[in-house]
Structure formats: C-alpha cells, structure tokens
C-alpha cells in the first residue's frame, strides 16, 4: 500500500505531506473556492427556510422544533414535506440569536466554515479508507497514505457540485449531516482500534458512532446511511472478507467456509448487530414522528415515479443516476432546479439517451468486477470502499425505497462525491504506476484542481443573488418551467412587469398545468387592468388545482373588479374553506362587503383578519375609516386605539385615528398623532392637508396655512385641499380688513 501511495509523489510533493500542512492546505483551498458567496443574499429556498420560518423566531417555544418539519410546518399535516431536521433548524435559530436577526452574511460564513472543516476532516477519513487500520505494537497506525488522502481531500474541497450546499443557506443541512456522518465513521474506526482491548471500550465507541449517526439524521435524513457504511467497512477491513472467495465456497459447499476471515473475527457479529438494532430503532422513531406517512409529491416534481410502466420507471431512474454521475465527472452544467421538464421522460428504449445508462452500468460493472475479483487485496478494499462511499449515502435519493421530490439535486451528491474523489485518486495512482509520462499526469491533475476551483468561484458568484442564479439556469435547463417562473417572479418583484409577463407565459407554455405561474401572471394582468384574461387564467388554475386557496382569492379580486359580486363572494368563501387561517382573504371579503354597503359583514370580515393576523394594518385601517364614515366616532376611536397598541409605529393608523379624534374635537391628541405620522412620512400630501384642516377647525390659522401650502406643493392637483386653502385665504383676508 505504501508503494502504491508513493506513485503519487510527482503530484503531491513530500514537503506538504505532514498532516498539519496537508490539513491547512485543504482548508485554505476550500475557503478560496467558496469565499465569494459570503455576502450573498437569501436565495431560492432560503427565504422559506429562514425568513418565513416561524420556528426561528424567539417567541416560538424550542419544543415546537421537534414537532415541525424543516420549513416550520406541522409534521402531522398532509401538506408537510416530512423533512425532519430539527438540529439544523436549531443551528439556524442560534445563528439568528447570535447575529441579532436574519442577516445572510452570518449564515453564509457558517456554511463556508463547515465545508472547510469537513474537507479537513476528510483528510483523516481518506487516510483510513486508503491505508486501513493496521497498528504497531506501540499503537501507531501504519499505512497513513498521506499522498492519496491529501489528493482526494483536495479534489473534494474544490468540487463545483458542492456549490449549492455551501452557497445556499439551506445547504447547511447537508453540511451538518456530512460533518456528523464523518465523525460517526471515525468514531466507529476508534471502536475497531479498541477491539483488542477491553470489550467495554469497543461497545462504547460503537454506541457513540450510532448516536452520531442519529444526530446526522436529525440534521438531514441522508445521515443515517453512515451506519451501513460502518458495517461495510467493518466486514471488509476488519473481517477481511473476500466476497468472491466466499461466493465460490458457498457454491461449492466448501466445508472450510467456517474458516473464512469474517467468521473468525471476534466481535464482528456483535458490532454489526448493534449497528442494525441502532439503525432500526432510529428509523422507527423517525417514522413515528412523521405521523401521517410519507410526503405527497406531484408529477412535476418527479415525473418518472408517476409513470405507469415499470420499465419506463426503471429506465428513467437509471438515466437520473447517469446524470448524477455526469455531474460528478463534469460539473460544468449546474442548475438550481432540475424539475418541470428540464429532463424529458424517456418513454422507449429507442431514445438515444439510453446510451448514458449503458455507459454508467458498463463503468459500474467494471469497477465492481475489479473490486470483487482482483487478486490485490488493497485494490479490492479501496474500490469496494470507494463504491460504498459513492452509493450508500445516495440510496435515500435513489427512488428505490420511496418516491423523492426531485429529479436531480446537486445537494444530495455532497457525501457521495467523497467516494467519487476516492475512486478518482485511485485511478490517478494506477495511471502513474503504469505510465512513464508522470509529469503529464501531474499537469492533468493540477489542471482539474485549478479548473474546478475556478468553476467554484464563478458558480459561488451566481448564487449570490436570485437574478444571477435564475438566469444562469436558462442556458442549462431552457425547458424547465420553474426556471422561467423564478426569473419572472424576480423581475416582477423589481417592478419590471412587462418582462415578467413574458417569462410567466413561457412557464405556462412549457407546463400548461403550472398553477403558480398562472396565479402570478393573473395577478400582474389584474394590476394592469387586463381583467378578462386574468379571470380566464385564474379560473383555469383553480380548475386544475381546486384547493389552491391563493388563486381562489385572486379570482375573487378580479371578479369584484368586474362587478360580479356574487361570484367574487363565492370565490372568497372557497379560498377560506381550503385555508381557514387566511387573513388576506378575509380582508378582501370585507372590501367586497363594504362595496355592497353590507357594513356589519365588512366589519366582521376585517375583525376576523385582525384576529388571525393582529398586525394586519389594512384591515384595522378599513375598520376605523368605515366606522368614521358611518358616524360611529366612539367605536372608530376605540378600534383605532386598539390597533395602535398592537402596531404602535404604523403611520397610516395614526393618520386615521387622528382624523377621528379631530372630528371628536380632541384637537391636542389629534395634532400629536398627525405630527407623528408626518415625522414617519413627511412627503405624504394628505397628512399635511388633514393636519391643516385640524388647525383650521381649531383656530390655529397660521399653522393651517403653512400645512395647506406644504400639501399643495406635494400634490398640486388635490382639489379638496385647494378648496379648503381658498376658504382659509378668504377668511384671513377678511380678518386683515377688519383689523385695518
């Protein structure tokens, strides 16, 4: 083994082989690759997982984290994705607390440091995987494989497929799971080292490894697969199992079967039994916590899993595997989302893409044959462990055990890429051993490291904000409706409605059942007063997805604008039926009732909105204004004061209550509220105009004149203010004549 590691000497100079220098180099390179993302925004899923996640707020009890999914929803809900990652959410919450709020920088720095730490830790992991666990009588480990472990760790540190995990805040789940995954593996190696000592030491480290595996799973589901990797490592490295020899003896009913190394190894059965029991127990608890069974995904999330033909499903699953393998091999075409038509379904064996399946299995079968049949025990072990590290962590994303909610996801390749880097390093070693052009191989390896580093830097920049991220996907997945939807949404948020409409229309063209694109497009058309098309789109959206509450509410708004009041009321009621806690819908229902002069119903609807969302400023305001307009000044004042207690800094509420107080001749208090509103928004003409009216009534005519003039400077076309200002000027002129 030491001789094989020495073949990499021309690639890894001996001057950087000391463990400390090797780890410093790996850590530095990993930071260089992704440092550009440190000041990025919250992008894509980050907003839902961080900003809109109520579990990150201080007022939410910590105990709720254990009953909610990753997005802050109840696990028992049928709409939950069942992504149970309470420890990741806890890390997010601690980050918010320590940084004083939702500041992206602190979250990005944590991710970058986590990736650096994992890359450093992999130096030790690869040293064990390449070198094994042989010790001298003094307890020093032999065959440290310093060159191969360093090269594999460098290849891992600079792999561009990791950009999503590092640059996206939600990738912290994958990073934390990987960290505890590796710690569990190293803990199990410690247990194997202690097997020749007191049995209690071995048991302790095995149990600790199982605990760390459970912690990894509570960061992300993939983490539990470390227990399978530990078992494979134990059987192959400690048990020295030769699978091919074992199969031969079983087939020939060889009586020497009982003498195989695996069966001779004391404690192996005990340790693997502990792993099996621990893993089963952890998975059982996880299943019980999920409550209502696995999550429900739609066809657009994973179209292959909805194919009626088992052959079509099998072909497409294997094609997805080949795409994942290609992302590891050539990580140049990267995309934040691979769903919604990005990868068209293979419907027959005549599709040319079947070649990718054949290529994948040709390579895998070749590697498996070498791993089983090679006479070199070191080669067998390295290939088997490399394949194990590549395949075992990927199993939860493989669709083999349950349907997953994606087609291809770069984030799930974070841990499997370690196995790929191990196999690639082994391949470089083999090439070095069998060729004389060692400098060419060295240049090739250094070229890969440099190109991947450059790609990481570029890709990290694309993840810094949503506009760059979404536009970068257009060239990779032009058939992905979600890409066009997100570009359109980003443009709409920036006020570019014309361009947003174009992308929303393309999203609907690519996926005629894309209800969210229809809803957003309908909203923009509604704002542009293109009500007829807006109604058609929203009607189609609720026809496709009858429980789409937001689309029902927006349809009601459009119908209200078209004066189809009965249909609008029915749409609002349907929206509330599908989403009982829907304050915005109650607010819009109240506006409908107000238009129909059903004042009591309007007040009740707005009151429901404020009960569900106490900070709903518009609902409070409308209640105050309606009560004011109908002459219920005392009730309007009470509602206004109640609202300001809940939202003390809302300038629009100050303005509305000030108007009520002015009519009730509570001039001093009204003046104070007007001045507070003006201080918050000094350039609002109506605030100055109504304060001028107050002063006019109160008899402070000079102050009234001053604020009338300010109001007219801000809005010269305000007819009411012009009229009142004219009345004031005539009154002042009359007073001057009297004084003369």
Automatic annotation (TrEMBL):
Taken from the UniProt entry, a GO cellular component term is: membrane
What is the predominant subcellular site recorded for this chain? endoplasmic reticulum
InterPro entries to which the protein is assigned, alphabetical: O-mannosyl-transferase_TMTC, TMTC_DUF1736, TPR-like_helical_dom_sf, TPR_rpt
Task: Specify whether Repressor is a keyword of the entry.
Answer: no
**Record's family?**
Belongs to the TMTC family.
The record's section on PANTHER family has: PROTEIN O-MANNOSYL-TRANSFERASE TMTC4, PTHR44227
Put simply, this protein is called Protein O-mannosyl-transferase TMTC4
Q: Which gene encodes it?
A: TMTC4
């Amino acid at each position: 083994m030491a001789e094989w590691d020495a073949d990499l000497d021309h690639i890894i100079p001996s001057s950087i082989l000391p463990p400390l220098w090797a780890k410093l180099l790996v850590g530095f390179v990993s930071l260089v690759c992704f440092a550009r993302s440190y000041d990025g925004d919250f992008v894509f899923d980050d907003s839902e997982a961080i900003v809109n996640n109520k579990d990150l707020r201080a007022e939410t009890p910590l105990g709720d984290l254990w009953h909610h999914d990753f997005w802050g929803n109840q696990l028992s809900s049928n709409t939950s994705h069942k992504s149970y990652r309470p420890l990741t959410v806890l890390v997010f919450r601690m980050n918010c607390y320590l940084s004083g709020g939702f500041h992206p920088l602190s979250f990005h720095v944590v991710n970058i440091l986590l990736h650096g730490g994992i890359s450093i830790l992999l130096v030790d992991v690869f040293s064990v995987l390449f070198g094994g666990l042989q010790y001298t009588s003094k307890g020093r480990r032999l065959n440290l494989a310093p060159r191969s472990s360093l090269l594999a760790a460098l290849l891992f540190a600079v792999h561009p497929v990791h950009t999503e995990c590092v640059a996206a805040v939600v990738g912290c789940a994958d990073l934390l799971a990987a960290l505890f995954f590796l710690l569990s593996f190293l803990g199990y190696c410690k247990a194997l080292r202690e097997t020749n000592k007191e049995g209690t030491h071995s048991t302790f480290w095995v149990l600790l490894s199982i605990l760390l595996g459970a912690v990894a799973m509570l960061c992300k589901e993939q983490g539990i697969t470390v227990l399978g990797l530990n078992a494979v490592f134990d059987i192959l490295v400690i048990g020295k199992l030769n699978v091919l020899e074992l199969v031969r003896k079983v087939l020939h009913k060889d009586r020497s079967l009982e003498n195989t190394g695996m069966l001779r190894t004391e404690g192996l059965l005990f340790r693997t039994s502990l792993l099996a029991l621990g893993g089963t127990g952890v998975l059982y608890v996880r299943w019980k916590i999920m409550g209502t069974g696995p999550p429900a995904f739609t066809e657009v999330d994973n179209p292959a899993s909805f194919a009626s033909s088992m052959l079509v499903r099998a072909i497409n699953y294997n094609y997805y595997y080949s795409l994942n393998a290609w992302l590891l091999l050539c990580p140049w075409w990267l995309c934040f989302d691979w769903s919604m038509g990005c990868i068209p379904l293979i419907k027959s064996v005549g599709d040319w893409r079947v070649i990718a399946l054949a290529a994948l299995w040709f390579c895998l079968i070749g590697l498996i044959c070498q791993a089983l049949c090679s006479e070199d025990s070191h080669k067998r072990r390295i290939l088997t462990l490399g394949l194990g590290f590549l395949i075992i962590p990927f199993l939860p994303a493989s669709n083999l055990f349950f349907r997953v909610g994606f087609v291809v996801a770069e984030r799930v390749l974070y841990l499997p890429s370690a196995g790929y880097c191990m196999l690639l390093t082994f391949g470089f070693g083999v090439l070095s051993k069998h060729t004389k052009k060692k400098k060419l191989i060295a240049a090739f390896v250094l070229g890969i490291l440099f190109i991947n580093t450059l790609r990481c830097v570029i890709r990290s920049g694309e993840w810094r904000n949503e506009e760059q991220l979404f536009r970068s996907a257009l060239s990779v997945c032009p058939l992905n409706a979600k890409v066009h939807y997100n570009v359109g949404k980003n443009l709409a948020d920036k006020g570019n409605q014309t361009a947003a409409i174009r992308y929303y229309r393309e999203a609907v063209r690519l996926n005629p059942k894309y209800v969210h694109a229809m809803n957003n497009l309908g909203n923009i058309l509604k704002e542009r007063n293109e009500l007829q098309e807006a109604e058609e789109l929203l009607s189609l959206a609720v026809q496709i997805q009858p429980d789409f509450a937001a689309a029902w509410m927006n349809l009601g708004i459009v119908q209200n604008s078209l004066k189809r009041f009965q249909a609008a009321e029915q749409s609002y009621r349907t929206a509330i039926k599908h989403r009982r806690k829907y304050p915005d819908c109650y607010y819009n229902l109240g506006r409908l009732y107000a238009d129909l002069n059903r004042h009591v119903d309007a007040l009740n609807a707005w009151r429901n909105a404020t009960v569900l969302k106490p900070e709903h400023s518009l609902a409070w305001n409308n209640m105050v204004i309606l009560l004011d307009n109908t002459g219920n000044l005392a009730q309007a004042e009470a509602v206004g004061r109640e609202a300001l207690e809940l939202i003390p800094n809302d300038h629009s509420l100050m303005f509305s209550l000030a108007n009520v107080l002015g009519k009730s001749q509570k001039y001093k208090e009204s003046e104070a509220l007007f001045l507070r509103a003006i201080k918050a928004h000094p350039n609002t003409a109506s605030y100055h105009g109504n304060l001028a009216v107050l002063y006019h009534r109160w008899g402070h005519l000079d102050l009234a004149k001053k604020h009338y003039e300010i109001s007219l400077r801000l809005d010269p076309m305000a007819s009411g203010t012009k009229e009142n200002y004219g009345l004031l000027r005539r009154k002042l002129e009359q007073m001057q004549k009297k004084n003369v």
